[in-house]
Amino acid sequence: MSLRGVNHIVLKVKDLRGADQFYRGVLGMQRVGERPGMWFYHAGGHHHDLALVEVGPQAEPPKRMNTGLFHFCLDVSDEQALAELYERCEAAGAKILGAVDHTVSRGFYVQDPDGHVVELGVDAPAHEWSDVDNPFALDREYVLPGRNK
């Protein structure tokens, strides 16, 4: 047996249409299928990378100090595309939580309409961090291309 990585993520949302506006309308994912109460999205990696399940308007948002998903990261092609996504999120009024250089990757965090935290990121070239003892402990501020500090 050998694991190869994450295949897809399924999120519970209050309203499929509102979540669709974020994942498809703002982030540019492609909706590839549906079944009653559940929509499927593709970002290029698998048959579907994300599925959304509608649980209704009374559902409570995820709470920070409870166990569960903290965030997930969607892979972006390059830093220019990352900067463009930042601008799209900003223009759409999405809550942007900040940008970080994680040494092994660079990106920013944004909340979807249901409060799920989504990181949009680009892997850093391995030669930039492969000789660092513990690159995961070296987070620092990140300024996206074309943005001033």
| Helical residues, percent | 10-25%
Report Rg.
16 Å
Please work out how many helical segments DSSP would assign. Answer: 2
CATH topology of the largest domain: 2,3-Dihydroxybiphenyl 1,2-Dioxygenase, domain 1
Spans of at least 5 consecutive residues with low confidence: none
Q: Biggest sheet, open or closed, and with what strands and sense?
A: 5 strands, mixed
Shape: globular
Q: Which architecture of the largest domain does the CATH hierarchy give at level 2?
A: Roll
In N-to-C order, the SSE pattern is EHEEEEHEEEE
CATH superfamily of the largest domain: 2,3-Dihydroxybiphenyl 1,2-Dioxygenase, domain 1
CATH class of the largest domain: Alpha Beta
Structural class: alpha+beta
Quick check: average pLDDT? Answer: 92
Distance between the termini: 47 Å
- Tally the structural domains: 2
Beta-strand percentage? 25-35%
| Total number of beta strands | 9
Strand order of the largest sheet: 5-8-7-6-9
Descriptive notes:
- The chain is α+β, with helices and mostly antiparallel strands and 149 residues long.
- It has 2 domains: 1-57, 2,3-Dihydroxybiphenyl 1,2-Dioxygenase, domain 1; 71-143, 2,3-Dihydroxybiphenyl 1,2-Dioxygenase, domain 1 (Roll).
- The protein is 17% helix and 32% strand.
- The chain contains 2 helices and 9 strands; from the N terminus they run E-H-E-E-E-E-H-E-E-E-E.
- The strands form 2 sheets. A 5-stranded mixed sheet has the order 5-8-7-6-9, with helices on one face.
- The chain is globular and about 50 Å long.
- The mean pLDDT is 92.
